[in-house]
Every structure is written in C-alpha cells, then in structure tokens.
Amino acid sequence: LTFAVATNFNFNATTGTSYFRGIENIITANSGIVTFNVGNFNYGGGNFAGYYSAHNAGLASSFTATGLMQITFTNAATDTCAFIGLTTLGAVTSNMRLNLTVGGNFNITGPAGLFISNLADGRETISITGSANISGGKNYFNSISTSIPNPHPVQMNIGTDLQVYGGITSLSGGNDSLIATIGGSLLVSLGELTLQGGNKGATVSVAGG
C-alpha cells in the first residue's frame, strides 16, 4: 500500500470506536508493506494503526512526515496510535521492520493514551530532524512490555532536543538494544523517561548535555 498526502493528514476521532488502518488483515499472515508519506501528521484521538496484520517477509514499512508529527491524545481510556500495530496472528510473529522519518518536530501531548511505534519484532529506525517533545501519553518505542514476544533493536536520531514534560516514555520498552543520538539537549522536568526497559544495553549520545 502506498498512501500519500501532500499537505496535512488529520485523524481526529471523537470516540474510541473510530479506526484508521492502512492495511488490516487479521485472517492470514502476508508479505504486504505500507509506504505512508504526508506533509504534516496530525493525530487527535481514536485508534490509528498504519499496518495491522502479521508480516512474514522481514520487509520494512516506511512512515514519513516531511513537516510536523503531532500526536494529541484526547481520551486516556481508548486512544491508541501505532505505526505497526499487531504482534502475532495465530502461530506467526510479525517480523516487519519500521522506518519512521520526521522532517520537523515530533510531539506527543494530551492525557495517557497509548503510543507504540512497532509491535512487530523487526528493527526500527527513527529519524527526527527537529526536536522530540513529550508532555503526555504512555509512549513506547520497541515494545510496550518485556513480556510481549517482539523484542527488536531501536536506532534513533533526534536532530535537536529531547524534552520530556510529562507522560511515561520508554525509548526501548523491550528486551533489545537502543542506540540513540540526540543533537541538542536531553531535558526531563516532569513525567518518566526510561532509556531501555528490558535487560539489554542502551547507548545514548547527547551533544548538548
């Protein structure tokens, strides 16, 4: 699937029963991928998953916002935002890789909705040209829990600052490695930030202190 919007992609659902699925197949494992390209990505509530199936070919799905990526939770009980949103289908564990590219800033705000980058077990590469600013949500790169069978490496590059003002965030929530480069400063004033939530190592380079 190739999905392209030249300007703004807006998904602003008022109830938890509103869904966006780029690909959804909960019947059979498959080799499909998603290429998702937008100008600005604006999520304002509901259930978003770019890919919701079990991928069995080890390929990568790519999600790109050339400008801003804004995730704003409105309902803590029902809001979920995931680029790759399913771990297993029957006996198959999805092995899809994730490439996430943001040309501007990456922001997460609002109450404690749930953000997960990649629920498959393929490597994820996160590239943010601007800053990453987090003031709400429960936010997990890699995996939401070490008990889920999808640990995978995370490589993350943030061009300027990583700022945490609230919420709960893990840069690698599963039992696999994290390599992160922050071009500016790492600032935590409220909330929680975990670098690696499992039993593997994390290497984080911060240029600005």
Please describe what this structure looks like.
- The chain has 209 residues and is an all-beta fold.
- The protein has strands spanning 2-11, 19-30, 35-43, 47-55, 60-65, 69-72, 80-84, 88-89, 92-93, 97-102, 106-109, 114-118, 124-128, 132-140, 154-158, 162-170, 178-182, 186-188, 192-194, 202-206.
- The strands form 2 sheets. It has an 18-stranded parallel beta sheet that branches. A two-stranded antiparallel ribbon has the order 8-9.
- β8 (88-89) and β9 (92-93) form a beta hairpin.
Q: Topology of this protein?
A:
Layout: E1 2-11, E2 19-30, E3 35-43, E4 47-55, E5 60-65, E6 69-72, E7 80-84, E8 88-89, E9 92-93, E10 97-102, E11 106-109, E12 114-118, E13 124-128, E14 132-140, E15 154-158, E16 162-170, E17 178-182, E18 186-188, E19 192-194, E20 202-206
Parallel strand pairs: 1-3, 2-4, 3-5, 3-6, 4-7, 5-10, 6-11, 7-12, 10-13, 11-14, 12-14, 13-15, 14-16, 15-17, 16-18, 16-19, 17-20
Antiparallel strand pairs: 8-9
Jot down its keywords.
209 residues, mainly beta, 18-stranded parallel β-sheet, two-stranded antiparallel ribbon
Average pLDDT figure: 94
Please give the alpha-carbon distance between the first and last residues. 41 Å
Percent of residues in helical segments?
A: under 10%
Categorize the overall geometry: globular
Strand content bin: over 45%
Classify the secondary structure makeup into a structural class.
mainly beta
Tally of contiguous helical segments: 0
Number of strand elements: 20
Largest sheet: 18 strands, parallel
Over the alpha carbons, how many angstroms does the gyration radius reach? 16 Å
- H-E string: EEEEEEEEEEEEEEEEEEEE
Report low-confidence residues grouped into runs of 5 or more: none
